[in-house]
Amino acid sequence: MDFKKQITLAVKAGAPIVQIISHDTLRIRATINSIADTLSLETFIWDSCKGLRKGISQQELMEDVDTPSEVLEWVIGDNQDDLPTPVNCILLLEDFHPHIGTFDHKNISRLRSFAVAVAGRRIDKVTIIMSQPVFDLPTELVKDTQVFEMPLPNLSELKKLAEQAKQKFELDERDCSFSTEFLNSALGLSTSEAQLAFAKIACEKERLNELDISSIVREKEQVIRKQGHLEYFHPSATLDDIGGLDSLKKWLKRRKLAFGESAKEFGLEEPRGLLLLGLPGTGKSLAAKAIANAWQLPLLRLDIGKIFGGIVGQSESNMREALQLAETLSPSILWIDEIEKGLSGIQSSGSSDGGTTARVLGSFLTWMQEKKKPVFVVATANNIAQLPPELLRKGRVDEIFFVDLPTEQEREDILNVHLKKRSREDNLSAVEIKEVAQLTLGFTGAELEEVIKEALFMAFDDGIDINFEHIKSAIAVTTPISMTMHELIDKTRSWVKGRAVRASSQKPEVITDKLKSMTRLKSEIENPFE
Ligand code: ATP
User: Fold this and answer.
1) Is-contact 303 225, C-beta < 8 A?
2) Cα–ligand 1 centroid distance for 289 (angstroms)
3) Cα 489 to ligand 1 centre (Å)
4) What is the pLDDT of residues 296-313, one digit of tens each?
5) Which pTM does this prediction carry?
């Protein structure tokens, strides 16, 4: 059901209090106005600057009602000046949440009295609608309040805004065209943000058309950055930049077409997401970036750590906002890097954070299960032991891949990728590359890249181009992370059997005794599985 219908139904059904979460003040006003028209109700609007006014559009000041307590006393028929109690109306309270905080218990009481009066039919056909940018509701009001989130403007609403900008800045008809691609680029912006983006372009370029898509996307990136939980990426990496991981690449290539219309007609379900598990530096993030590029979809990185805000209810609201934005930009890829970091300690979360982490995870998993929009989730995790088991349950994602240390053949591929990236693919013979791959047992992709970078420095110092000897010297001064983590690797390998699919079809190599002989810190020996 669309947003306006939902609010109309709530008002018609006699809901006493409705809370709408959105930054879009103007669009909320317009929606409420239109609902009031449809249901033949009067409207009143209040904010802390201007006090109470009659009518959302005309706004006729009502001088005797000004403060938050006065407006609530007026609506429950308890005011000093014996003003008539409103009937048949919607009262829109803008940004009222600071006035029903912990220290404003009287206002909470007044709202509860109002809800009781509506339930007892002492007050009839009056609904209070609170509009605010964040979810914030005292526990006392939870049962009496319907909460809705206003979706961001859709394509037809954005078209209206573009038309308005065209008129306002008197642009020539020939310089304007609002194609789906043009409007798509503005999806994810709120009304005021889209208005500003269109106005800036109209002012500067005296046109508004597909040539401005990149400017709109830039604007959008800024908005996403400001929100703080999502980051818009423009990855240049492709699947060819990943050395090895053939099974994962094959899976991705097969799924690429599944987002299209023909796949839907064929009866295929849209891919939901992937979980990539493995040691740091094995190419999980690289894969997330390459998927976005291969599928030509916007890549949004969710910082799960930043989701957890200080105020009660803030974390859930942050998560909802981020997921809503990802849906608005869909089809898109939502990349959650190191998902275990944000969700670790979930088992104890009930006692340590009042269950916030568990609730955030719960809402994320429900969204994963029920989402209707094509948002493909790529979650990566280094530490399997910290992952909540709910996330690993079958059906949450399309597939769980385990990214192991690269095999000898894969190390050759990775070395070739990084030499080619630096235009040095001819500096080593095939035999030399093979020998380097043999010398680097236990190295991750990131460590192999580091070896090449280090060898380049050595070559530069020597005043010659990079060669086999430089690479061998760089290997000698690099200690792979697997040296100190072999128990973890062994345990992880046996844990993933039957639980995850290997990202590579090649048989994993055994970490040799030579690698196992390092002196280690106690924390490095710890077995996180038991
Ligand atoms: P982390 O969890 O620490 O972020 P990760 O598994 O996500 O680790 P990446 O960040 O993808 O690892 O790897 C770091 C860099 O190492 C990559 O940007 C890439 O240059 C190189 N790399 C890692 N694996 C591969 C690979 N299979 N092929 C090519 N390059 C690789």
Assistant:
1) no
2) 10
3) 17
4) 788 999 988 878 766 656
5) 0.73
